[in-house]
Design goal:
The protein is mainly α. Helices cover 76% and strands 1% of the residues.
Length: 303
């Protein structure tokens, strides 16, 4: 367990795989009638609640400060409440696999934002990776969901907002990480804040009846909560060990799990262009990763 906790690569694989499971779970839940906002609430309540119970059972508590509360609220909004709402709203229209492909754009968008903010400076290889990734994204967007079931372009644009929001969250969590805070504490606070935001929004817009469909899939709800709590314990540790751009690469693993589980278990079918676009996105991320490893996308030089 210690080797897993300290290995960026192992954390990447485990976190990405658990994130990928969220896609088929969400597909089953929304097919049962649960609104996207409700399933996003299930994810955050499960992650925050179960991790809090484990923390308290170990005899430890959480220290709250103004900086930590601000971190919880901002992270909750841009990293969890908003993108999860978008994801679970888009899945019924685009399919779990297609929506999962959007996660592969997160590394490239994270890098673009890092460059725009002056955190990193690109070289030719890095820019080539970004360009290749966006070519793949354009190919995927053109297919508009499952084969034979083209979705409205509105839902494609909604899905494209998911990696953009995740990229903002990736950078913010690294820049604003509170001093002395552990990954479990940050996961608990951020997800309970997201759950509170979503609960208020659900009750205000849809009423308590929106939760009724969850009773039709209790085992899926339980599995989603358990996988979410496990994933985010590793997620924040990966943030600390690997940094924002490396963390964003969980999108590869999540997209693979989403595509294959959607195809094998949920009866989804995708065009060859979708698979080709997904492969090109991965190639683009591979190029940008190589550029980072070679120091061709470096940290900003001190003034």
């Amino acid at each position: 367990m210690a080797s897993l906790w300290n290995s960026a690569f192992a954390l990447l694989v485990v976190t990405g795989a658990l994130l990928g499971l969220t896609l088929p779970f969400g597909k089953i839940g929304t097919d049962a009638g649960a609104p996207g906002m409700v399933w996003a609430f299930v994810v955050s309540l499960g992650a925050g609640g179960l991790l809090l119970a484990a923390l308290l059972a170990s005899g430890r508590g959480m220290r709250l400060t103004v900086r930590r509360l601000r971190y919880f609220l901002v992270t909750a909004a841009v990293s969890y409440a908003f993108p999860n709402f978008l994801m679970f709203s888009a899945i019924p229209h685009l399919g779990a696999g297609y929506t999962g492909i959007m996660f592969t754009l997160s590394p490239i968008i994270t890098l673009v934002f890092s460059i725009l903010l002056g955190v990193r400076r690109p070289n030719l290889l890095g820019m080539a990776g970004i360009l290749v990734g966006f070519v793949g994204a354009a190919m995927v967007a053109l297919t508009r969901g499952e084969a034979g079931q083209p979705a409205d372009i509105f839902w494609v644009l909604v899905a494209l907002l998911i990696p953009a929001s995740l990229a903002v969250g990736n950078i913010y969590r690294t820049v604003a990480w509170p001093d002395g805070a552990g990954p479990i504490e940050l996961a608990i606070g951020s997800h309970l804040a997201a759950a509170a935001m979503l609960l208020v929004a659900i009750l205000a817009t849809q009423g308590a009846g929106a939760f009724a469909p969850l009773a039709q899939v209790p085992w899926v709800v339980a599995a989603q909560m358990l996988s979410a709590s496990t994933m985010f314990a590793f997620f924040f540790r990966l943030q600390a060990v690997g940094g924002p751009v490396y963390l964003s690469q969980i999108g590869y693993v999540a997209a693979a799990i989403g595509l294959f589980s959607g195809t094998l278990f949920l009866g989804e079918h995708y065009r060859l262009l979708t698979w080709a676009g997904a492969a090109i996105i991965v190639a683009g991320v591979f190029i940008t990763t190589k550029a980072q490893e070679r120091g061709e996308i470096g940290e900003r030089e001190p003034a």
